[in-house]
Amino acid sequence: MKGFFSIFVFLVIFGSVRGDLQTGFYASSCPKAEKIVQDYVKEHIPNAPSLAAALIRMHFHDCFVRGCDASLLLNVTSSSGNQTEKVSPPNLSVRGFDFIDRLKSLLEAECPGIVSCADIVALATRDSIVVTGGPSWKVPTGRRDGLISSSSEALAEIPAPFDNITTLIQNFANKSLDIKDLVLLSGAHSIGIAHCTAFSNRLYNFTGVGDRDPTLDSEYADNLRSRKCPTQNSTTKVEMDPGSRNTFDLSYYSLLLKRRGLFESDSALTRNSNTLALVNQLLQGTLQNFYSEFAISMEKMGRIEVKTGTSGEIRKNCAVVNS
Ligand code: HEM
Ligand SMILES: *[C@@H]1O[C@H](CO)[C@@H](O)[C@H](O)[C@H]1NC(C)=O
Ligand SMILES: *[C@@H]1O[C@H](CO)[C@@H](O)[C@H](O)[C@H]1NC(C)=O
Ligand SMILES: *[C@@H]1O[C@H](CO)[C@@H](O)[C@H](O)[C@H]1NC(C)=O
Ligand SMILES: *[C@@H]1O[C@H](CO)[C@@H](O)[C@H](O)[C@H]1NC(C)=O
Ligand SMILES: *[C@@H]1O[C@H](CO)[C@@H](O)[C@H](O)[C@H]1NC(C)=O
Ligand SMILES: *[C@@H]1O[C@H](CO)[C@@H](O)[C@H](O)[C@H]1NC(C)=O
Ligand SMILES: *[C@@H]1O[C@H](CO)[C@@H](O)[C@H](O)[C@H]1NC(C)=O
């Protein structure tokens, strides 16, 4: 019984040292922090709405490698020749680093050394999606910044556009996200753009014999080939949700059912009975249903392997670890 009790006490103490994210973590240490982020986003994102897509993708890529610890923002890591996540192929076009840097400068001016880059990414992502008319979600704070950024880990852990449903489910499960989270978070492809290189194999050389992906709608494939991505190595960009790239809506899911999901990873969601059932449920519900379910998954994603308490650090400059 005594042993039992000490284990209990140990867990309570350890739990509180380890800490968790908290609503309004900066309420006393930097009361204006969340407002500063929100105001800056409200001022600038309406002029550059495509940054909202860039930021949510940045948040996702950050969280999937070493947790949501701003490791993606590092230019170099201390003392080693490690390539950073930023220069890894899946970073492809992750944009918005300078936006986060400007926010960081404002927060350093207000309260030096208090607000982590990881929290800035999480808050700015949510606020920019809200400002562009998309869903909102809770962003508890208290994340700390990591010290390590590794290109090879990014390559291994960020899902690829050619991944099949089995790999995607496993990849998300590795981050404690379930198939519902997979289906909902993929809905972020309702906004933003992709380079032709992310899917041109489906148009030109799917199995290595100059063929197409038979699961891609042929009219859509023709259109992509002739107008959008005329060469296989094109660096042209296309809307992932044509005609609706700035609107966070359910059209992504209707396109999936029309075999017009842009990536194999998108169309894969229709090829598993559980994920397909979720897609159908979302389409039968309202936009508000989608938004509230998306919010739950986003909050979960924002908690992946976060560093709190005394682990990691509060970076002074988001691109470099403190010396
Ligand atoms: C399920 C596995 C996923 C795969 C395989 C995947 C893959 C990709 C790829 C290849 C691109 C195009 C990048 C480019 O060519 O520039 C892209 C764009 C994007 N992804 Fe994903 N993604 C996945 C999940 C997610 C999640 C979970 C989110 C956010 C919650 C997300 C948000 C976005 C956004 C917003 C864009 C557009 C970025 C922009 O406009 O700059 N994706 N994704
Ligand atoms: C980090 O790298 C980016 C380019 O990727 C550059 O614009 C920025 O100035 C660098 N920041 C620092 C502090 O080295
Ligand atoms: C992303 O990685 C590519 C190489 O794979 C590199 O050319 C590009 O500069 C990187 N992007 C950023 C923002 O660092
Ligand atoms: C380099 O990356 C490896 C993992 O790929 C990691 O174990 C190591 O700690 C990294 N080193 C630094 C200094 O970031
Ligand atoms: C999914 O992809 C993985 C890795 O490429 C492969 O090993 C597996 O056989 C594929 N599964 C299916 C059902 O195609
Ligand atoms: C999931 O994690 C395991 C163990 O770290 C790893 O071997 C595997 O490659 C991961 N799978 C995916 C699809 O990321
Ligand atoms: C298709 O891919 C195969 C294998 O990678 C390659 O040998 C072939 O040249 C490619 N064909 C075309 C038309 O690009
Ligand atoms: C890309 O395509 C163009 C035109 O088809 C060709 O001239 C060029 O060599 C290609 N580049 C690469 C890297 O394959």
Task: Describe, in short, the structure shown.
By secondary structure, this protein is an all-alpha fold.
Helix content: 40-55%
Write out the distinct hetero groups bound to the structure.
Answer: protoporphyrin IX containing FE, 2-acetamido-2-deoxy-beta-D-glucopyranose
Overall number of structural domains? 2
Largest sheet: 2 strands, antiparallel
Oligomeric organization of the protein chains: single chain
Helix/strand/pairing category = mainly alpha
Low-pLDDT residue spans: 7-18
Catalytic activity: 2 a phenolic donor + H2O2 = 2 a phenolic radical donor + 2 H2O
Keywords: Calcium, Disulfide bond, Glycoprotein, Heme, Hydrogen peroxide, Iron, Metal-binding, Oxidoreductase, Peroxidase, Secreted, Signal
Pfam families: peroxidase
InterPro entries: Haem_peroxidase (IPR002016), Haem_peroxidase_sf (IPR010255), Peroxidase_pln (IPR000823), Peroxidases_AS (IPR019794), Peroxidases_heam-ligand_BS (IPR019793), Secretory_peroxidase (IPR033905)
